[in-house]
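Question (not urgent): is this output format expected?
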Amino acid sequence: MKHIKALTVLICLLSSVNTIYSQESVEKYDRNFKLGVGINAGLPFNDPYEYNLGGDVRLQYNISKTYSLSFTTGFNSLYVKDDGKNFNYIPIKVGYKTFLFSNEFYVMGEIGAALSVTDEYDQNSMMIAPSLGYATKYVDISVRYETLKDFPIIKDNKVDNSLGQIMIRLAYGFDL
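Got this back:
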């Protein structure tokens, strides 16, 4: 939880710095939508998971040149060690993105739910995902820390909750 609070403070500070450097008028900006299709790969920090692979679709509404709102959904599969049953889920997240400096680097915060689609496990989970990224007109590369609050893990040889993982996203995006 300390890591999430530290990342939240960092995102707020970077947003404040960006506001100081941004001299644009929001009223003159032609707002638009952008659609991105991405692939995700991740490294879970907890047992019994080995790695995470998935894909997503993100709809982004550009409020200004430096601020955007987003809605992301997709499908992810957590692969379990020792030939166990893989754990599949559908992430549904809303987010806020702030571009920094030259409007290519950004920080983003997302919150939402991870809906389990594995037969043996029907519990859903809250999801929090702060990220850092780089975006051009068509390419978006980002790294994020993702917390799945209610997903089962093994900690100190006991069943527990709260899966943490680092995810990398590579996406192709275009204006709508």
